[in-house]
Amino acid sequence: MPNSSRSDDSPTPRQIEVLVVQSNPADTLVTVEAFHAAGLTTGLSCVEEGEDALSYVRGEGKYANVPTPDLIFLDLSQPRVSGLEVLKVIKSTPALMHIPIVVAAGSDDPKFVRAVYALNGNCFIRKPGELQEFVRFIESCYEFWSKVVTLSPQPQAVKYRVRDPLLAVLNEPGTPTVLLTIGRGSTVIKTDFRKVSERGELARRVLQMLQNGQTVPTHDALQLRNWAVHPDDAMLPLEDIARRILRQEENSNEKTG
Question: What does each C-alpha distance from 46 to 73, 81, 102, 126, 178 come to in angstroms?
């Protein structure tokens, strides 16, 4: 039966990226179906644990190429990393803190509610016990965030132009990764980076893309800024951030080598 509260001239819900973090498979199934019924046909992803939720929003491991969520539906109870810890980490990370987080729990214990808002959760909702109520709750939630609210735009990939001197990556089969510093009319200086860190690998990959005139993917750009040597460095051009990361790695290798 059509919902009489929706008029023909009401705004059409936008297709947004929603991440559901819920440990109960039955609740997850109902939540997914409710979002589908509300009109979300694409962009819905689910994880069961808080650790996976953090890996997802950071784009780590198997989540390396996923888009940043526009909205997170977070179950307060998580088996390993608690829902409150997930909320705290996301809301304290500059590159992620703009993501709205709807926290749901089976109890509206005042201490939980206060904790959610103290950690900058966008709203706390007690999950209804009845299935039909829960479905209506999800529909209302999606309608609000997709039609009423103006969400933070998804960041666009930006092309950066490399300045001289430039850093390039040389990695021939069977040889260690080597960083080349190439200056205009200067001698090539080779620095060996045998002890490779994940952060250093990203810095090298970004520099190689810049050298080739390629667009740096949004996720890589955000991750590199998040891994800047100092917090203030996050606002520097990507080239400068990557250089500082590699310089720090080189100094570290010299001390421990």
Answer: 9, 16, 14, 20, 40
The pair of structure tokens assigned to 72 is 């997170």
What pairing do the DSSP bridges indicate for beta strands 101-105 and 71-75? parallel
Backbone angles phi, psi at 212, to 5 degrees: -85, 5
**Model confidence pLDDT, tens digit, residues 75-124:** 886 656 688 899 999 999 988 999 999 998 888 889 889 999 999 999 99
Q: What's the predicted TM-score (pTM) here? A: 0.57
Tokens of 50: 């808080």
DSSP helix/strand/coil, 98: coil
> Domains of the chain by range and CATH?
18-148 (3.40.50.2300), 166-256 (no CATH)
Residue 74 in tokens:
């977070």
Q: Which two tokens stand for residue 157?
A: 């990939």
- What is the side-by-side order of every strand in the sheet holding 178-182? 166-170, 178-182, 189-192
